C-alpha cells in the first residue's frame, strides 16, 4: 500500500474503474483517515485507511480474464435496459469485480480482456498504445479490389480520417481479415457502410497479444502468468511514415478550413463602407461666375 496512488488503490479494490475512481476522488467521495482527499495522485502511506462513504476499501488480488464474447451481449457491467451483459457470462468463481478493456459492439464477437488491474487497463486502452486488433469481417457483397485499395489508402468519415493497417482476402471474396489500431466506435462497420457494404458478421480474433482460439464462444478462462507478462511488457509500435503523413495532411486541412471560417466571419461582421460618387472630369465651375 505504501507509495501507492489513491486512484490506483481505489480501482484495484474492485469498487470501480480507474476513470470512475478519478471522478469519485475529485468529487470528495473518497476519504483518507476520515478526511476527503480530492487529489487522485495522492501517495498513500502504510497506516492510511481509505473509505468510500462508511465502507473501508481494500485492494483485491489482480485478476486477468480472456473471454470469447458472443453476439447479443453488452460490453458493460450493467445495463439500464436490462439487456444481457458480459458479467452474465462469468460464474461465481470470480469473486473480484473486473472491467472490460475496450469494448465490442452488441453484435460483434471475439476476444475481450477483463481485469481489475487499473494501470494495465489504462495502458492498453489509451490511443497512444496503438494496440493491434485483428478482425474477421463477413459481408453480404463481394469485396472488390477497388474497395480493398480504398480501405488501405484511407478515407474520411464524419469523425475524421480512417484506414486499415493491413487487409487480407482469400478465395471467398465476401470475407476479409483486417488489422487496425484505431479504437474508435464502430470504425470497421462505418468504413464498410460508407462504401456501400453490409456487414453480416464481425469477429475480433486478436487483441494485443491475446486470442480466443482455445476459448469456446461465450466462454472464458484466466490468463497464464506468461500471457500477463506479455501484456505488461507491451510497447507501442513506432508510427509509420504513411500514418504521420496522413496525420499532417489532416491537420493542414483543418487549419485551412479554420482560416477560411474565421475570414468569412470577420467579413460578415465588418460594416460596408459607402463608396464616394466619382466626380466628372473637366473644368470645375468658377464660383465667382456663379455668383454673378
Task: Describe the protein's architecture and organization.
This protein is α+β, with helices and mostly antiparallel strands and 292 residues long. The protein has three domains: 4-56, RNA-binding S4 domain (Structural Genomics Hypothetical 15.5 Kd Protein In mrcA-pckA Intergenic Region, Chain A), CATH 3.10.290.10; 61-131 and 208-238, Alpha-Beta Plaits, CATH 3.30.70; 136-191, no CATH class. It contains eight helices and 17 strands. The chain has helices at residues 6-12, 18-26, 118-125, 145-153, 187-194, 225-232, 241-269, 287-291, and strands at residues 4-5, 30-32, 35-36, 43-44, 50-52, 55-56, 64-69, 99-100, 108-115, 133-139, 155-157, 160-162, 166-169, 175-180, 199-207, 210-211, 220-222. The strands form four sheets. Strands 7, 8, 9, 10, 13, 14, 15, 16 and 17 form a nine-stranded mixed beta sheet that branches. Strand 11 and strand 12 form a beta hairpin. The chain starts with a strand and ends with a helix. The model has no long low-confidence stretch (mean pLDDT 85).
Largest sheet: 9 strands, mixed
Question: CATH-wise, what's the superfamily of the largest domain?
Answer: Pseudouridine synthase I, catalytic domain, N-terminal subdomain
Query: Uncertain runs with pLDDT below 50, 5 residues or more?
Result: none
SSE arrangement, N to C: EHHEEEEEEEEHEHEEEEHEEEHHH
Shape: globular
Q: Tell me, rounded to a whole number, the average pLDDT.
A: 85
Helix percentage: 25-40%
- Class per helix and strand makeup: alpha+beta
> Over the alpha carbons, how many angstroms does the gyration radius reach?
29 Å
| Percent in strands | 15-25%
What is the name of the CATH topology of the largest domain? Alpha-Beta Plaits
* Tally of separate helices: 8
End-to-end Cα distance, whole Å, is: 109 Å
Query: Care to count the β-strands?
Result: 17
CATH architecture of the largest domain: 2-Layer Sandwich
* Number of discrete domains: 3
Under CATH at level 1, the class of the largest domain stands as Alpha Beta
